[in-house]
TrEMBL record:
Keywords from the UniProt entry: ATP-binding, Nucleotide-binding
UniProt xrefs under Gene3D superfamilies: P-loop containing nucleotide triphosphate hydrolases
Matching SUPFAM superfamilies: P-loop containing nucleoside triphosphate hydrolases
Keyword Hydrolase among record annotations: no
Lineage, opening ranks: Bacteria, Bacillati, Bacillota, Bacilli, Bacillales
Domain of life: Bacteria
Name of protein: Site-determining protein
Organism of origin: Paenibacillus cineris
Amino acid sequence: MDQAQALRDLIRQRGSGGRGAEAGMEPRLTGKGKTAKLITVTSGKGGVGKSNFTLNFALALQAMGRKVLVFDADIGMANIDVLMGISPKFNLYHLLQREKSASEIIEKGPHSLSFIAGGSGLSELLSLSEQDLAYFTEQIEGLADEMDYIIFDTGAGLSKENLNFIRSADECLVVTTPEPTSITDAYALIKVVSGAEPGVTFKLIINRAGDEKEAAQTADKIAMAARRFLGVETTMLGYIADDSHVVQAVKKQVPFSLAYPNCNAAKDLQRIAYRYLLVPAPPEPSALTGIKGFMHKWLRRTK
């Protein structure tokens, strides 16, 4: 029996038995048994501010009353903890070794933001036995029942691991900058992912934009190419200004939205979070959703 079949059997067993927008217009998910929406944040190349966006976006959603967990899934370059100036006591490795439960490896960042550090455990995740897979799925599923959003900060580029995360989650946020190389790499990522997994929802974040016009032009270039050559629709969720306060915050190891809440980048980030919560979730093409659907699709890609 392969890993994918093992997970399907496990699922069957459990299955029986804009600028002026206001927060709060999306219904708050409550009650036992809710399943978090799974979001991947990725980029076509490194150095575009992907992890910084992930961290501050998560903090913004949390400030609006959502329960958020950040999962650092950047294999080899995990750095969410560094951006917060935190040295995690535990990471994914301790869960996979069954030294700690999923709830025990959750660390708390600024404003009590929940996050899981990847560490060396990410490489272990790629070669789980069927028994370990069932344990991992059960543990993460428990977290999903307590959260509104789980945000996976993936690595940049087109590695097999990144693609599996992107293709398995509910939605993909692609971070890019107006630089030509960043634009072409973002398009390449969308091309590969959409070719392998039709139906993935892409939303664009234009980082380090000179102004709104430049951001719109950048998003239009990607959208036009994706529509013409791939038949894929992409939308711009928002943009973040090229703001020196962001660099200063990184040096301080404090999220820029907290260190400089009135800077242009922080205000842009907040508008993105408002807009995100006002956009209805895309319909699910599969009966398997949430963490179960994520694991099902993930393992289908690693066979």
